[in-house]
Design brief:
The complex is a heterodimer. By secondary structure, chain A is mostly helical. Helix content of chain A is 56%, strand content 0%. Chain A has helices at 8-25, 48-62, 68-73, 77-87. Chain A is globular. Chain B is an alpha/beta fold. Helix content of chain B is 31%, strand content 27%. In chain B, strands 1, 2, 9, 10, 11, 12, 13, 14, 15, 16, 17, 19, 20 and 21 form a 14-stranded mixed beta sheet that branches. A four-stranded parallel beta sheet of chain B has the order 4-3-5-6. Chain B has a three-stranded antiparallel beta sheet with strand order 7-8-18. In chain B, helix 8 (218-227) packs across helix 9. Classes of the chains: A mainly alpha, B alpha/beta.
Chain lengths: 90, 500
């Protein structure tokens, strides 16, 4: 897990990027505006098909396959940010 | 009867052969017979003949055991999509009044909060049930064995009652189309609460191994294809599109895979070509309808229809064995070759009717024929082509979405004067809903209200991709809503944005 206390500024930038990345995969992008960083995406209305597309979008962003552990962990905006932040060495 | 006979026959012939497989375990025919018999005994002790047993679970081998156990016990399996919201599940429970629920841990957690009075049996505990057998003669060939859920033009869910005779006809019909047997490994990539579960039962009838995914993801499906040495697969076009986009596909090989069956939505030609190349497998189109009892028409890999008789039509092949098909004009007379009409099908595999809803049944069934509500035509060689849906059904990623259901939900916003939902083309899902909303007063429009209603009352796959405020609804001089005009507007709007 990324230590968020030391990554606040960096994650601040990443979080915007991550939200944009996620929005591109949603059928109705404004849905994400009502979902907090720590809220469960599926419980908030993101459907399973959109979750698949988010994972594929992350793989395209990272230019590598996600591990099973990373896929399992990607349940919220912040969790997705952490996967991407770890990759970029944040 | 049919399912019990399949089970017994395969237990005797292939006791150690694998009947079912998921990521947790594999079940031999011998074990399947034992576990289904134990479940049937348990159900018989808790549910009266003809009583309903709700199945609220994700995919797992025990889901198929539940269907088989209910059949053996002479009770009715009623699968429910776990993605439905609390109000949607409540409607189904009110309609079916189940005596028992077979649920996985997630389903049980929901029931505890939403319907604490219902009797529940943990579906994952089926293998641990004490040995037993159902009372002799409990199952009947022509009694309802399952009630599959479908929505409707009214926006309310309907149960589609099917019997074992229908399942038997469907299996024998399917086995006349597809070569499979004890050595065939079949992967059902679709959810088991769906009407396509009939395909899994068809493969069990052939003593094949039926594999299932807990939930579809490109990786899970590609891994299963490889590790389980899958020979035949059932998927919807959206699943195939997502797998083709996956990085996992680049390194994967599937030497055993030779047939991909697809249905539930039209398969674009370019996607079909890409799938054939990527998987080195044949493709087979299966046209099915829940009310028709499952697979009804098929376009086999060797079929070579000529080009579409009308632009945009999709060929669904020929009626399967035991199925009759006709295309009719509005006056009921037979349409000529190339003439668009309504597609009707007949045969012993059709549903018995909508659950306790004879009026709704009479609307779609007449003299043994079922109106599919699809518009299509037959070409000069007899191949059937689907052109459009007459009842505005939206096929989103293989799931049926009915505009009326969304419209009824959106009308709950107090400022909404009128609303109409139509399909628009989606690159990933085939189709997606677009909602046109007329506010009661100018300036009253609040999209956040509409989204809130959808999130809280509709399963997420039914949520429109776009909400559009309008100043008036297009209507004919007679006042009829012109949905075709809205569909054109929806296509235009989606084309202006990024199609997803």
């Amino acid at each position: 897990m990324v230590d968020l206390r030391h990554q606040r500024d960096y994650l601040g930038v990443v979080m915007d990027d991550v939200r944009e990345l996620i929005k591109k995969q949603l059928d109705y992008p404004p849905l994400l505006d009502r979902i907090g960083d720590n809220e469960d995406l599926m419980a908030s209305g993101v459907n399973s098909g959109e979750m698949i597309r988010i994972a594929l979008g992350c793989e395209e962003y990272l230019c590598r396959m996600l591990t099973d552990a990373e896929l399992t962990a990607m349940t919220s905006v912040r969790a997705i940010a952490e996967v991407l932040a770890v990759q970029t060495g944040a | 009867m049919w399912l019990a006979d399949v089970l017994l026959r395969n237990r005797i012939r292939y006791p150690d052969g694998v009947a079912l497989r998921d990521i947790r375990r594999e079940v031999t025919w011998s074990a399947l017979h034992r576990e289904v018999s134990a479940l049937a005994a348990e159900l018989s002790s808790r549910v009266s003949p003809g009583g309903r047993v709700l199945l609220l679970s994700g995919n797992r081998v025990e889901m198929l055991e539940a269907y088989l156990g209910c059949a053996a016990a002479g009770v009715i399996a009623a699968p429910v999509n776990p993605a439905l919201t609390a109000p949607e599940v409540a409607d189904i429970i009110a309609a079916l009044r189940p005596a028992l629920v077979l649920a996985d841990p997630a389903g049980r957690a929901r029931l505890l909060a939403e319907h604490p009075g219902l009797a529940v049996l943990a579906i994952e505990d089926i293998p641990a049930l004490p040995p037993g057998v159902a009372p002799p003669g409990a199952d009947q060939l022509t009694a309802p064995v399952a009630v599959m859920q479908t929505s409707a033009t009214t926006g309310r869910p309907k149960g589609v009652a099917v019997d074992q005779r229908g399942l038997q006809v469907k299996a024998l019909s399917f086995l006349g189309e597809v070569s499979c047997g004890p050595g065939t490994v079949f992967l059902d990539a679709c959810p088991l609460f769906h009407g396509s579960v009939v395909q899994a039962l068809n493969y069990l009838a052939a003593a094949s191994t039926v594999c299932m995914l807990d939930g579809f993801t490109p990786r899970a499906c590609l891994t299963a294809l490889r590790d389980w040495r899958v020979k035949h697969m059932l998927a919807v076009p959206s699943m195939i599109a997502l797998m083709l986009r996956s990085a996992d596909l680049k390194t994967a090989e599937f030497p055993e895979l030779d047939l991909i069956m697809h249905g539930a939505a039209p398969m674009p030609a370019d996607l079909a070509d890409a799938a054939r190349a990527a998987f080195s497998a044949d493709l087979m189109t299966v046209f099915g309808i829940t009310e028709g009892g499952g697979p009804t028409l098929a376009l086999r890999p060797g079929d070579r229809p000529a080009g579409p008789p009308v632009p945009g039509a999709a060929c669904v092949g020929l009626p399967m064995l035991g199925v009759s098909c006709r295309i009719t004009r509005d006056d009921g007379t037979a349409a000529d070759a190339g003439e668009i009409g309504e597609i009707w099908v007949a045969g012993d595999g059709l549903m018995q009717g909508y659950w306790q809803d004879p009026e709704a049944t009479a609307e779609v069934m007449r003299d043994g024929w079922l109106n599919t509500r699809d518009l299509g035509c037959a070409d000069a060689h007899g191949y059937v082509w689907v052109v459009d849906r007459r009842n505005d059904l939206i096929l989103r990623g293989g799931q049926n979405v009915y505009p009326a259901e969304i419209e009824e939900t959106l009308r709950q916003a107090p400022w909404v004067a009128d609303v109409a939902v139509v399909p628009a083309t989606s690159t990933t899902w085939g189709q997606t809903p677009v909602a046109f909303v007329l506010p009661a007063t100018p300036g009253a429009y609040a999209e956040s209200d509409l989204l809130e209603l959808c999130v809280t009352r509709l399963a997420s796959y039914k949520r429109p991709s776009r909400f559009v405020a309008v100043e008036r609804m297009p209507r004919s001089v007679a006042g009829k809503l012109l949905r075709s005009r809205l569909r054109e507007d929806a296509e235009l709007l989606m084309a202006q944005g990024e199609r997803r």
